[in-house]
Amino acid sequence: MSFPYRETVVTKPLKIVIADDESDMRDYLSLLLPRLGHEVTGIASTGTKLVEVCRETRPDLIITDVRMPDLDGVEAVKQIHCEQPIPVIFISAFADVRLPKQTGDHIIAHLHKPVGRADLESAIGKVLVGSNGRPSAARES
Amino acid sequence: MDPLFAEFQRVQRYIGWEDSDVERIRSVAPILLSERDALVTDFYETLMRHEETSRVITGGERQVERLKESLRGWIGDLCSCKYDADYVRRRWRIGQRHVEIGLKNVFMHAGFDRLRHRMIQAVVQKESDLGVDLQSCLGSLGKLLALDLALIEDAYEREYLNRALPSDERRLEQQRTVAQVSERALACSEFSELLDRTVGLVASALGAARTEYFELFGEGKALLRSAIGRTPAEIGRRSFPIVSGSVMAAACERSRPLVCVDAPSEMRYVAPTESVGTGLSIWVAVRDGRHVHGVLAIRFSKSRSLDDSDMEFVQTISNVLSTALHRLESEASRRRGEAQLRRLVDHLPAGAVYVSGDTLFVNQAVESIFGCLSTDLGRRSDWEARVVNRSQAVPFEETVHSPRGTISHRSETIQRSDGQNRLIEITQFSSENDEVWLIHDVTEARQNAERSLRGERLAAIGQMITGLAHESRNALQRIRACSEMLEFEVEQNPKAMDLVTRLNRAQDDLQTLYDEVRNYAAPITLELRPTLLDRVVREAWDSVAMLKDGSSATLDVRGIDESGVVQADSFRLRQLFRNLFENSRSAGASSVTVEGKEVCESGRHWVYLRVKDNGPGLSEEVRERVFEPFFTTKTKGTGLGMAIAQRIVDAHGGRIELAPPGHSGAEFVISLPRDGRD
Q: What is the predicted ipTM?
């Protein structure tokens, strides 16, 4: 998979919402992301919860698991993208997950488990601050 | 002086013939002449009453009239009293004529006696008319008739002897001919060849103008097959229907030869021993078992008599021809039978071997299974030399105690002439004297079965692995998350950090194992492209060489150049060779040889690659299990390398197998279809 984003240094801390049904992962991301200089503005354990949290906090980036109870990560992101185009990093155990086309522009990365600090750092690095002052997925010019 | 007449005069003197006798005959002459018609009529009436004598009459009433006239002339001569040389010659001629017509002497005597008796009777009755003494007259008449009989009998005897001599020579010639024809009949391989020779020999032995053989065919038709006395253009072309009642039809119905005195169209038959005129011919059927094969016709241009020996000769020739036909037909039938049997054996869709003692006879299917000629498999030892592996023979229980022999079953792996190994199944019938083997090449069937079994096993593993992989990835993710969180906690403690690093390495190894298993079990999708074998082999080698540091090893690639292009997935082929090379290097081999060869087999082009190393080789246990998944001899490794190699070759429609032991290192033989799989 190729990413149409330029490797860029993030200029300011991002507001990130994380979603995973595993508490170990939620704890890990909550601990890791502030160490990378970002702010975790919301934590969700289901897809439905993710949609709600994003609606409330309007984050700069979403990092979500794909397989989750009630609503999976892909469906949740589809709903969120109907309201606001927030960049997403998917984390899944499968390589062959089909990602929604209409949201393709806003998917920063699709990472396969197990994912470590280096993988996440590099994926978040692809998020660029847009001209409106909000971070967004930057297109290759 | 005429010797016959001189002889006659000597006999006259012997019986005391005098001039006075002539005078007395002159006295009785008028009486005899007056009774001449009555004498002649009586003579022929008697003759025609008896079958034996009537047979000499061949010309019917007309001939009888002619013969009566001759008898009248004879009586006239008797009474002429002119007993000169011409008289003698005429009497001589009568004797000769009797031989010609086949009149037996005994009947001549009987006829003569009757005439004498009737003459004496007539003279006695007319005694009063005589001017002289009756007794003297009867005495003279008796002398005259005795002289005539002596003359005629002498002529008969000499003529008979004259004729007997050439008849013996003819018989000898006929016997020689029978011997010659018989010899050819035994030796010939074609009936036509025998016929062509026979018609000539028969014509010559019988002095025939023409001898022909008409072969019967279809519905009542005959074809001139062979002939002497005909132009070559007439032979083999003239066919005609056999008309009912014709001489040909009559000959076909009889077992004995038949004689025809006129042209065959007149269809007049006479008994074989009678004298015949021109247009004489003999017809005899030649039989092929119960059916008439043809008719031999012998035609004469000159008048001649046919005796029993001539007829016997013709009959014998017909018998010899019939026997030859029978022999040729039996031989042809035996040859047909043999050819059919040979065809059956040669075209059996299975190999067949007949074993007698140390000698083997194999059919064409065996030749193609072994890739060699039957002469290369002439002995048991030739066969044994090609057997690489053999299973124990298993007897079929139900036939073990059969008195005719036993049937058993075994399988063998044999090496073809081109080095390829084939698995064959042998069903063997053994009797006391010989063995018969039925052979099937089950290499492909066994490979397909194994492939399909592997496929099924892989599908099951695949399902399991997919489930396992997902859950394991989630678990691995949690381990990773926790170990990284632990890192945050113990950043300042180097000892604890070292433990975390080791934990991460173990986790990575586990991850690699899962990836390999998944790689092995997942379906292989090939991206076929023209692939340079040489390059693939060298790239695979380079990647392995980089893995190993320190020890040096060499790769020798032979027989593959730019022509070594196959339709293949180069990524997968590299993986295949890498796995093979890795094993060689791990086993301590310092040199690896890859030898390529292109072979055309059942219309397809194959590339054969022998991968050989100089390592320690494979033990018997390893040889048996080398392609089994998870089987490994290394302390580190999943044991999937060779199983994956086999999957890659399978996916390409090829084969990978171990070369037979004998070579010191390990040797694998890979065959790949040059144009990709079907």
A: 0.81
Q: Model confidence over A21-32: pLDDT tens digits? A: 999 999 999 999
Find the CB nearest A94 among B470, B480, B488.
Answer: B470
Contact B666, B592 (CB under 8 A): no
Instruction: Give the C-alpha separation, B658 to B624, whole Å.
Output: 9
Kindly list the residues from chain B whose CB atom is less than 8 angstroms away from the CB atom of residue A114: 473, 476-477, 479-480, 507, 511
- The span from the CA of B364 to the CA of B368, in Å, is 6
Closest residue to B473, CB basis, from A31, A32, A93: A93
Q: Decide: B533 and B596 in contact? Cβ < 8 Å.
A: yes
Judge contact between B416 and B431, C-beta under 8 A.
Answer: no
The contacts of residue B573 (CB under 8 Å, 6+ apart) are B531, B533, B536, B540, B648, B652
Residues of A in contact with B501 (CB under 8 A): none
Å between B644 CA and nearest CA of chain A: 21
- Contact indicator for B671, B655 with CB cutoff of 8 Å: yes
- Indicate the residue of A35, A93, A116 with minimum beta-carbon distance to B474: A93
Q: Are the Cβ atoms of B484 and A115 closer than 8 angstroms?
A: no
Highest averaged pLDDT of the listed ranges B154-158, B314-318, B634-638: B314-318
The answer to pTM > 0.80 is no
Cα angle value B34/B37/B41 (rounded, 5°): 150
Q: Where are the alpha helices (DSSP H) in B522-569?
A: 533-547
DSSP structure class, residue B266: G
Q: What is the pLDDT of residues B56-81, one digit of tens each?
A: 666 667 778 888 898 999 999 999 99
Element containing residue B612 per DSSP (H, E):
strand B604-613
CA distance B518 to chain A (A): 12
